[in-house]
């Protein structure tokens, strides 16, 4: 079965059940969520009953919960330790997020490696490794390092940096990678020959570390280091190349998650998933959603 979904909301009153219902309404077979607002660290207490109800509903709908993904908030930065209290806050907050994932029964959490903000790549990588070794000490959750576009001083826009981090992490069973097609393109990788890219990733990092792929088109050309997502088929990567990636046999068991932009504040995922399932691009998708909203 094709594992396709999108990021969905996690509301304090409906929690995992609400996230799942949103995903099901898109015809998704998997999903990703933040356990609270991605831009802050406020978190509501988890409701066990909602979790249990959601897990039951997943079983009824053949959704493999072991592949559902959490994304860590993106304000967390493990690469920068200029201010000790901020760095320690990042570590402690991620430890709490791991505990929340464990409470929910989630296995994978995607994390942006971080930005060194002037400290230099080597120092940034050292800080990330140090932080991860504290966070993963007794973790049952696997942290997936996301491949980044290389905006500003972002670490992780090339596979060699990702490899360096993995090499430094002691708990090898709980570290992995999440690719992002927009980021790969913006970082300078050729996503049009995805098999070749997978070979290269396998050589540098190891395909066994890959557990998730974010499927996004890009507003910008290859090597732009911009990180601006575009709707499927409307960007510089294009529909055919993304379909080739989504249906690549070597990653068929890996969840594929859309993080494409809302259209007039309306989530496009139901329609994008439909296009992907039919392997047929609808160039009127944006207009049709705009018409519905107005
Ligand atoms: Fe991300
Ligand atoms: Fe992403
Ligand atoms: Zn991005």
Q: What would you say this structure looks like, in words?
A:
The chain is of the alpha/beta class and 294 residues long. Helix 4 crosses helix 5. It has an 8-stranded parallel barrel. Strands 8-9 form a two-stranded antiparallel sheet. The chain has 10 helices and 10 strands. Helix 4 links the parallel strand 4 (108-111) and strand 5. The protein has a domain at 68-253: Alpha-Beta Barrel (TIM Barrel), CATH 3.20.20. The structure holds fe (iii) ion (FE) (2 copies) and zinc ion. The site of zinc ion has 5 residues, from helix 6. Zinc ion is lined by residues 180, 182-183, 227, 229.
The helix tally amounts to: 10
What is the ordering of alpha helices and beta strands? EHEHEHEHEHEHHEEEHEHH
- Percentage of residues in helical conformation: 25-40%
Strand order of the largest sheet: 1-2-3-4-5-6-7-10
Write the topology of this structure:
Blueprint: E1 4-8, H1 15-25, E2 32-33, H2 48-60, E3 69-71, H3 84-104, E4 108-111, H4 121-135, E5 142-146, H5 159-168, E6 175-180, H6 181-187, H7 194-204, E7 210-215, E8 217-218, E9 229-230, H8 239-246, E10 256-258, H9 269-278, H10 285-293
Helix pairs in contact: 1-2, 3-4, 4-5
The protein binds fe (iii) ion (2 copies) and zinc ion (ZN).
